[in-house]
Amino acid sequence: MELRHLQAFVTVAEELHFGRAATRLQLSPSPVSRTVLELERELGVQLFARSHHRVELTGAGTELLPAARRLLDDWASFTTCGRALGQELAAPRIRIGSPSLAPSDVVDQLASVLAELYPGVPVDVEFDSSVGLLAALRRRELDLAVAHLPVDDPDVLVLPLARYRWAVVVPSHDELARRAGLDPADLAGRRVLQLSRAVQPATMERLSRWLTDLGAIVEHLPDPDLVRLAHLVRHGRGVALTVMSGVTEQVFTQPGLTLVPMQDPGLGIGLGLVWRVADDGSRLVREVLPRLSRLAGGCPPGS
């Protein structure tokens, strides 16, 4: 008996059709039918009752199906564990992640610390939304991640690294553009355009509630497109609340737009180092945290 016999049996049992089962297995019907017959001969029982237009499990087939599924699950688990072990025994690499829109200096400092602690060990950096980074961290595809705060996930721990400096993006002809700085209350009654909540749900939800409490009219765009947001502000659709760092500052520094600094709203939104609870005592976490602690305490990104 081989793995292909179990795969054919389970797939035909799920489809009750040799043609559909063959499609799922990326084979033609004849090899699938032949493989099932081989299994029936080896077991000495008939697994399927076949007619010209119908395929049904026999009593023996129904009884054996759960055991066949368990064997396939065990094989998949064995394969996954073996590959994971192979990766651990391969040349070591450290995998870190950073939000695509975050200032580069924070993840650069993390990469620099890792290079000092582990000379000669490659550091791979992935860029994604905070949601995507946390999912990759849970799947053990990343060892550490920089993520937007707050993070609401019981499976990870967080070291706050930096708070953002805030600004309001307004059309250059807007009366707010002539101000040296803004108070949050200046947003009352204003339509404030925000990126999609999917970028970082916890952060965007906190920001939206705060803006609504101020009396602002919040409009969420369907995507995280900063360039589109800049166009909408320039053409008078509304204003935008943003952070003064990294890619966002570059996008909004253009003719027709003005970035006006705003005092810290005290929302606790910033960047933090995130790692799995299960890895809290690992060598990597123990050695990296003290080196990054000098960033904690509110150093603005990009400063």
What does this structure look like?
There is one protein chain. This protein has 303 residues and is α/β, with parallel strands linked by helices. It has three domains: 3-89, Arc Repressor Mutant, subunit A; 94-162 and 269-295, Periplasmic binding protein-like II (D-Maltodextrin-Binding Protein, domain 2); 165-262, D-Maltodextrin-Binding Protein, domain 2 (3-Layer(aba) Sandwich). The chain has helices spanning 3-15, 18-25, 29-43, 59-89, 104-117, 130-138, 201-214, 226-234, 246-252, 283-292; strands at residues 48-50, 55-57, 94-99, 123-128, 144-149, 156-163, 166-171, 191-194, 217-220, 239-243, 257-262, 270-276. The strands form three sheets. The chain has a five-stranded mixed β-sheet with strand order 4-3-5-12-6, sandwiched between helices. A five-stranded mixed β-sheet has the order 9-8-10-7-11, sandwiched between helices. α1 crosses α2 (18-25), α1 packs across α3 (29-43) and α2 (18-25) crosses α3 (29-43). The protein starts with a helix and ends in an 11-residue tail after the last helix.
- Level-2 CATH architecture of the largest domain: 3-Layer(aba) Sandwich
Class by alpha and beta content? alpha/beta
Cα end-to-end separation: 65 Å
Helix content: 40-55%
The CATH homologous superfamily of the largest domain is termed Periplasmic binding protein-like II
Shape: elongated
**Sheet with the most strands, sense and barrel status:** 5 strands, mixed
Oligomer: single chain
Q: How much is the radius of gyration in Å?
A: 28 Å
Keywords: DNA-binding, Transcription, Transcription regulation
Pfam families: HTH_1, LysR_substrate
Domain HTH lysR-type: 1-58
Protein name: LysR family transcriptional regulator
